[in-house]
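Incident log, structure service

09:12 report received: a user says their structure output differs between two submissions of the same chain.
09:20 pulled the input from the user's history:
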Amino acid sequence: MAAIKRTRLSIEQKVEVIDFVNSGNSQTAAAKKFGLSRPAVNSIMQNVSKLQDAYENEIKYVKRKNVGYDGKSTVLDHILHDWHVRIENDARNLNITGEIIQTKALHFRDLILAKHSEALKSEVKLSLQSFKASKGWLEKFMQRTRGKSKTICGESKSVDMNAVEQKLAKIRKLLTDVRLDCIWNVDEMALQHRTTSARSYVTVNHDGRGTKRCKDRITVTPVVNAAGGTLPLQVIGKSKNPRVLKGVNIDATFNIQYESQKCAWQDGSTMIRLFHRIDRAARLQQKTFYILLDNCSSHLYAARMLDPNGSVDDGFKYNNLVIAFLPPGSTSECQPLDQGIIRSLKAGYRRAMLRTLLDQYDAWQLQRVPKSTDLFPVHSHTDMRNVLNWLKGAYNELSENVIQRCFVKSNVLPALSNLEANTNISRVSSASSDRDKQVEELSNILMNVQLEDDLASCLGLKGDMKTVCDELIHFDKAEPTESTEVNEEYIIIEILTATDSVSTPIDATPVDVDSDDEDVAEIISPKAALEMITDIRLYFDFDSLPNHVDNENLQTLLKKAQKYLHEKIQTEHFKKLTQPKIAQFFSSNIEEKLPVGEK
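09:34 re-ran on a clean worker, output below:
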C-alpha cells in the first residue's frame, strides 16, 4: 500500500480552505481541491477564529526565490531590501549601483554587531561575523530580490504632464469593466486631535500648568470606494494601549482599526496589516478590489513585500487585491480623497469635538466658583475615547454623494464608470453640495463657541468666521504622516524582530524628551508632592469648600498623605547616608573642626 503524502499548509492556505468552505462548498470538496484528508479540513474549520486572527496580525515577509542560497544572510537580505525600497522611492534619480549595495551590506553588518551583538541568536551572530559582500553574493542577492541593473540618464524620472496623463490612461484601462464598489482609494491624513489651533499662545496648546506645548497627533487612514462605500478607519497613535481604553475592544466598539507606532506615523508594518484587512473584506465578498494609492514609501514598501514581482508601472497583486499607484507629484489633482473627502471628514470631526467641548464648558460654568481664575480644563475632555467617538461619527456621516463626486472630479475612472457615477449623483438633490453642508454645520457650531468669549479665546477660535473655519480644518494639514528620512536603526530593529533573529527583546522606543503621549505621566518627586499637598491645605484654610464636600474628611486624607510622604523622604535620605571610614577620624579635616582646647 502506497504511503499517503502529508500536505503541510501555511496559515494563508488554511484561510483559503476556510473561505472555500464558507462560500458554500462542502468539506469533502475542500479536501479534494487542496489535497487534504477529511479530518484535516474538519480540524481547520474548528479553529476558524484563531487562524483568521493569526493571518491578520502576521507581519508577512514574503519569501523570495531561492537561488543557491544557504540562508546565512537572511537578515541582511531583508534589511538591504527594505533600505533599497525606501531609498528608491524617496530619491528616484539616485542610481544605486552594485558597489553601493555591497558597501551598505558591510555597513549594516558592522552596525548590527556593534549595537545588538548581545541580543542576537548565536547562529545569526556567527553568520554575520563570517559574512563577506562578494560579487557572487551580490549577484544572488539581485536575483533573490528581483533587482536589475539599469542606467538612469539625465532627468528621465522627472514628472511632466504627458507622463501623468499616460499613467492615468493606463489606470483607466485597468479599471475598465470594474464595478464602482471594487475601486478603492486609500490615503493618510494627519490630525492634531487634542487642539483646535496652530497658534502657540492659546490655552488649548498648553498643558494644565500652561508651560508645555500640546503637540499630540495621530494618523487617520480612510478607505473609500467609487460607489460611496467605506471600510473601517485605520487610526495610528503613539500609545499601544491608551489608558482610557483599557479593557475596551476598539474594533467592536468604534469599528476602527487602531494601531500604534512610536511617532504615530504610517509605516510598512501598519500598511501591510491594513492591506490584510482590505483583502479579507474582498474575500468575504468574493470580489477583487482595485486599490489606488500615492507613492509614499510605506505604501510602496508594503506592496513590494506582498508582491516582490510587481512594479510601480505594472501594479502589484496579492490574493484578492490589485494595487495601482497614481502618478507621482500629482496626487493633489487625481487622488479622490484629496478632492474633498478628507476635508469633509475633518470638518465633521471638528464639529463633533466643538459640540462636546461646548457642552462640557456649559456644565463647568454652572459648577464654577464666582470670580474664580480657574481655566476650563480642555484636555480632560480630549482623551482617546472621545477622539475615536468623534472620528466614528464623522466617518459614518460621510455621504455617498460626496465620495462619488470626488471620484468623478479626480478623473481616474473610465468613461463608462464616470457615467454611472454621475447618474448616481444626479439621483440626489444637488441644490447644495454635501461638502458645503459639512462646513456649514461646522460654521454653525463655531458661531455658538464664539458667543462664549472665554471658550473661544481658550481654543484660539476668535476672529473672522470664514477664516477661522478654514484654519480649523486645515491648520494640521502640513503634519507628516510618515517618516521623511530613512532611519537605519529602525529598519534594523524591525527586521531583527520580525525574522526572529534575537534571543532577547530589543527596546525600539526612542528617548523623546518632547513626547506628549497622553499616557506618559510626568514623574513627580516625593518632595515636590509634599509641597503641593501643603499648598493645597493652605489654600483651603482661606477658601471654603462647596457644601457637598466633606472638609473634615478631606483634611484627614491630606494629613495622612503628608505623613506618608514625610516618612518616605526621611527613609530615602537615610539610605543615601554612608558610614564614614575610620581614616576620616584621623584626617586633618576632622582635626580642624575640633574645639581649640581639644587639639
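09:41 both user submissions now match this output. Likely a transient worker issue. Closing.
09:42 reviewer note: The longest strand covers residues 218-225. Residues 11-57 form one domain.
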